[in-house]
Amino acid sequence: MINVLVVEDEPPIQCMICKTISGMDQEFSVRYTAFNGIQARRILEAEEVDVVFTDIMMIGGDGITLLQYLHEYRPEIQTVVLSGYERFEYAKQAYKNGVTDYLLKPVNKSELRDILEVLKRQYHQRMRNRRQECFKELLDGIKLPQKSRIYDELLASSWYLLLIRVLGRGGAKGGLNPETRKSLESGLIKMFGNEEAVFQTSDGAGEYVVAVRDSIPDMEAKALELLNVMGQSDGVIAMAGLPEPVRAQDFRQHLLELRIQIMTESIYGKSCYSCGGGGGEPPNRTTWE
Questions:
Q1: Which of 1, 19, 31, 90 lies at a C-alpha separation of 20 to 30 Å from 161?
Q2: Nearest partner of 125 among 69, 50, 52, 60, judged by Cα
Q3: Is 103 exposed, middle or buried (0-12, 13-18, 19+ CB in 10 A)?
Q4: Model confidence over 251-261: pLDDT tens digits?
């Protein structure tokens, strides 16, 4: 759910904007409203907000000052300026403060719908990037922050953990070149979906670590399919996977187990697959149990 704050000092206009956003796309939740920039800052300091719609000229804290605050201290929040025709110059000035877009009042529903689509795409891309950052921090053993929506989401689920070994194409030390990484990520998204998987390139040469939410059915079959398809064209030479989903807090220890699985051909957990060095026909065998 995308949390929205609407900052507008005219109650009828504020109510109309809130109802229109909520009715237009159920993925947006207008959870917060404010009548000026001061009220808005109090909300921003206490709550998790993803998108701010703000008027420019308001008594008790104007929109430009609010935008400057957002640009300096909360740049991850997407902002849309609400402006009357006679204040169009203020809207243009707002672009200097990282504004996503602007809407002229009275709000045109077609323009609002287009802006919501842009906001939604940017939000999902940002969340995907943040999930991967958090995933890497968990793998690196970095202490979890006390308050983070993304961490809460990761910790609330159990995950299948996969380690993919890729044939190096960039020299003796291997490693993932951009073409290989793009191909892998495209295949993973197609297989598991954008919101169900998080993945990152490991610090180890030619390794790719993937976490897949436990709600994915037939995980073993999907992993084998991924290996068979990508082993032919993308240089995937081995894949190790845990037989049961694990907690995010335990990613680091299980990644070490998966590395041992690949090195010793499934001594640990009997869940290693190998396609024999890339380019050849992957063997039709599995020891995932």
A1: 1
A2: 50
A3: middle
A4: 888 988 888 87
Burial level of 146, CB count in 10 A (0-12/13-18/19+)?
exposed
Three-class SS state of 89: helix
Per-residue tokens: 191: 């297989």
| 165 bridge partner residues | 207, 238
**Distance in angstroms (rounded) separating the CA atoms of residues 184 and 262:** 19
Q: Is 10 exposed, middle or buried (0-12, 13-18, 19+ CB in 10 A)?
A: middle
What pLDDT, in 10s, does the model give residues 203-252?
Answer: 556 788 888 888 888 887 887 787 777 765 566 777 888 888 999 889 88
Query: How buried is 23 (Cβ within 10 angstroms: 0-12 exposed, 13-18 middle, 19+ buried)?
Result: exposed
* Peptide bond preceding 178 in cis form (omega within 30 of 0): no
Contact call for residues 261 and 254 (beta carbons, < 8 A): no
In DSSP terms, which residues pair with 161 in a beta bridge?
211
